[in-house]
Amino acid sequence: MSSPGPPPTAVQIREANAHLAALHERVAELERRLAAAERTVRGQAESLIRKDAEMRQAVLGLREGKDREIAALEERLQSSEANTQKLLSVIQEKDSVIGQLRHRSRLLTKICRSRPVLDNLLAYMAEGERFSPLLGDPGGDASSPNRSPLPETNCLPELDPDARDFSLGGEDDADSEKMLFGTTV
Questions:
Q1: Residue 125 in contact with residue 185, Cβ under 8 Å?
Q2: Tens digit of pLDDT for each residue in 90-99?
Q3: Which domain of life is it from (predicted)?
Q4: E strand or H helix at 27, and its extent?
């Protein structure tokens, strides 16, 4: 074995102690900085976790709000579609009524155009009725010679229940069962 060297001098021991003290000081400083850095990192991590949770909550709130808004819009759309169907039904009914009113208008126009003919016919019938008392004796019996051979019919023809209605325009009306009004003489 080799012999130990000369013992260190007091200056060397002081320098070594000062070096060790500085080294310990440096380690303590680094440990403090490390602890501070760990606290900062831990604080930032906790902050990020909180912010992430807040963001998730905000996104969830937005999603729920969006879903509620979509549901409300779908409900409004269905309501609008139902109203549209109702309005289309009303329009169809009104169109049907308009068609009926147009038909009635055409009939009334034809009647108004035929009015002079009807007025003349009624005048001739009234004139004919004025002469009917001269043909027979209203107070006599049926065997009286002055009695008219024609029976009184009040100018109404005998109606055959199967006969078709008379049309002034000479047209067969396909809608004869939809008789709107009638006249009596």
A1: yes
A2: 999 999 999 9
A3: Eukaryota
A4: helix 10-135
pLDDT digits (tens, 9 = 90+) for 107-123: 999 988 999 998 999 99
155 contacts 125 by C-beta, under 8 angstroms: yes
How many residues would you count in the chain? 185
What is the share, in percent, of the chain residues with pLDDT greater than 70? 69
Contacts with 137 (C-beta within 8 Å, 6 or more apart), sequence order = 144, 146, 147
pLDDT number for residue 136? 53
Q: What is the DSSP letter of 178?
A: G
Reduced 3-state DSSP string for 111-175:
HHHHHHHHHHHHHHHHHHHHHHHHHCCCCCCCCCCCCCCCCCCCCCCCCCCCCCCCCCCCCCCCC
Return all residues near 132 (Cβ < 8 A) that are at least 6 apart. Answer: 148, 152
User: Nearest CA to 169 among 121, 120, 114?
Assistant: 114
Token pair belonging to 46:
């906790």
Contact between residue 104 and residue 180 where contact means Cβ atoms under 8 Å apart: yes
Predicted structure pTM score: 0.40
Which has the closest alpha carbon to 176: 184, 166, 114? 166
Measure Cα distances from 174 to 106, 112, 146, 179, 180 in Å: 14, 21, 48, 11, 13
